[in-house]
Amino acid sequence: xxxxxxxxxxxxxxxxxxxxxxxxxxxxxxxxxxxxxxxxxxxxxxxxxxxx
Length: 52
Fold this sequence. Notes:
By secondary structure, this protein is an all-alpha fold. It is 88% helix and 0% strand. It has helices at residues 3-26, 30-51. Helix 1 runs antiparallel to helix 2 (30-51).
């Protein structure tokens, strides 16, 4: 896996930790979860494009 894709994976997992911590402490925020889902989709797109 190239460095940029690996970095996106790390950022995505870190984002999940941050959004989960925010949800636990301050309550759910739909926009944060929406943003994280977009980040996952972008990361998956990068993984798929490097797989070809």
